[in-house]
Amino acid sequence: MQPLENITAMMVFARVVETLSFTEAANSLGLSKSFISKEIAQLEIRLGVKLLERTTRRMAVTEVGRAWYQFCARALQEAQGADAFIRDYHQQPAGNLSIIAPVNYGRRYIVPPLNAFVAQHIHVQVDLDLTDRPVDLQHDRYDLAIVVGQTPPAAAFHLLSPIEWGLFAAPDYPAAQTPVTHPQQLPRHDYLLFRGPAHTLSLPFRQGKQKLNIDVHSRFRINNSEALLSAAIAGAGIAYLPCYITRAAQRQQQLVRLLPDWRMDDYYSYLVVRQPERPRALVAMFCQQLQAALAPADCFSP
């Protein structure tokens, strides 16, 4: 017996039990009474058990039928939920969407797709929490979380984009005026480092098969990359930053990248979806739009 053979019959049987009538079950499912009767008869043959006791006057559910109905009812409920999900997906979405994302990545990469989504769907309300604190999606009850890290989150996720890090300094900073040509020259300089998930005093470098870790001294540590960017532009030291944050400053010649031929840390952004009992079409729709919006764009430096 193949389980797939019984899916339609399970739903038919569930409705027969709920109505105790082939006629009413047929009407509610949009099927003929003869189809219902034949489906139940074939089902009992396949299962090798009696599910219903039928006479000319009444219908009763057997003990094994009542037990098997619990599985059938859940199958029917899931099928109805699946149909409702698709209907909602094709209709004008409505409802609340709650998202949590890191401050700077969220501002640059999550807010623009959200702006387009809200403008496109006038019945949608969005709550966006921009914060760099750790996220517990189930406890915090957000629909979606954007997580940035070097390793994937424990929960189910979609990879959004890579994020390369590098060293940057103002054009008049000594390391820029007399260019650094090798990571081993770095310890003599002062550094602006990020205090938080990416905090480090040992900077990693990769070039081909070479791998180095260079210990550097930081006189100024800040817990916000935009503030680090400002300090670097002001000439306070060499900043270790995500490359995407420095793009505008590089175009305006406010910063230069040091050792661009050496790779450093690679982080990634991940989209984590809370797994509710009933998936929501609104959440699925925005996830698809966000992934499409970020797919052609990378967060690597130009």
From TrEMBL:
Pfam families assigned to the protein according to its UniProt record, in alphabetical order: HTH_1, LysR_substrate
Superkingdom of origin organism: Bacteria
Alphabetized InterPro entries for the sequence: LysR-type_TF_proteobact-type, LysR_HTH_N, LysR_subst-bd, WH-like_DNA-bd_sf, WH_DNA-bd_sf
Protein's GO biological process: DNA-templated transcription
Keywords from the UniProt entry: DNA-binding, Transcription, Transcription regulation
GO molecular function: DNA-binding transcription factor activity; sequence-specific DNA binding
Domain spans labelled HTH lysR-type: 5-62
The keyword Cytoplasm appears for this protein: no
Keyword Transcription regulation: yes
Family statement: Belongs to the LysR transcriptional regulatory family.
Name of the featured protein: LysR family transcriptional regulator
